[in-house]
Amino acid sequence: MLGNTLKSALMISLLAFATGAVADVTFSATQDGSALNIDKAMFDTPAAKEFLATGKNPYIGNEDAIKKGKKIFNLYSCVACHGGHGEGAVGPGLIGANFRYAKNATNKGMFETIWHGTNGGMGAKGFGLMAPDDGLKPDEVLQVISFVRSNSTVKMTGNE
C-alpha cells in the first residue's frame, strides 16, 4: 500500500515539476484522512515556509534544530511514551523502518501525526488545537521531527 502511495506522490510531483506548477502541501489527519486546515500564516519562518511549499523538512541534519527539537520533545513529555530517543516505550517507536502509521516515514506524514494526534491515544500537539496559548507551532514540530530523525536506526531522513 505504501508503495502505491509513494508512486502516486512521485507522479504528482513530476507532473507539477514538468508544468511548473507550485502549490502548497495539503495536510490530512492521521485518524481518518480528512483534510487538515492549518492557517498558512502559522508557517512564519523560512524553514516552515519551505516545508509548506515542498513537504521537505529543511531542519534535517541541522544541529541547532536537533538540539531545540530535543528540548521540545522533553518539554512536551514525548519521552514518556516514545522513549528518550524516539525508540518507543509505552507508545510506538519513531525511528525505525516500521511505523505504526506508514505515513510517518515521510516528514509530512510525521508532521500530520504530531499536529493532529492519532486514534491510538496521542492528543493533538498543534497550536490552536489545544488551548490557544498551548501547543506547538509548525516550526517547532519540524525541529522535533529533526531530533527524531537524528536518532533513526535506518538513517531515514523523511525527505526521501
UniProtKB/TrEMBL annotation:
<feature type="signal peptide">
    <location>
        <begin position="1"/>
        <end position="23"/>
    </location>
</feature>
<dbReference type="InterPro" id="IPR009153">
    <property type="entry name" value="Cyt_cL"/>
</dbReference>
<feature type="domain" description="Cytochrome c">
    <location>
        <begin position="64"/>
        <end position="152"/>
    </location>
</feature>
<dbReference type="InterPro" id="IPR009056">
    <property type="entry name" value="Cyt_c-like_dom"/>
</dbReference>
<dbReference type="GO" id="GO:0020037">
    <property type="term" value="F:heme binding"/>
</dbReference>
<keyword id="KW-0732">Signal</keyword>
<dbReference type="GO" id="GO:0005506">
    <property type="term" value="F:iron ion binding"/>
</dbReference>
<keyword id="KW-0349">Heme</keyword>
<feature type="binding site" description="axial binding residue">
    <location>
        <position position="82"/>
    </location>
    <ligand>
        <name>heme c</name>
    </ligand>
</feature>
<dbReference type="GO" id="GO:0042597">
    <property type="term" value="C:periplasmic space"/>
</dbReference>
<feature type="binding site" description="covalent">
    <location>
        <position position="78"/>
    </location>
    <ligand>
        <name>heme c</name>
    </ligand>
</feature>
<feature type="binding site" description="covalent">
    <location>
        <position position="81"/>
    </location>
    <ligand>
        <name>heme c</name>
    </ligand>
</feature>
<keyword id="KW-0479">Metal-binding</keyword>
<dbReference type="GO" id="GO:0009055">
    <property type="term" value="F:electron transfer activity"/>
</dbReference>
<dbReference type="InterPro" id="IPR036909">
    <property type="entry name" value="Cyt_c-like_dom_sf"/>
</dbReference>
<keyword id="KW-0408">Iron</keyword>
<dbReference type="Pfam" id="PF00034">
    <property type="entry name" value="Cytochrom_C"/>
</dbReference>
<protein>
    <submittedName>
        <fullName>Cytochrome c-L</fullName>
    </submittedName>
</protein>
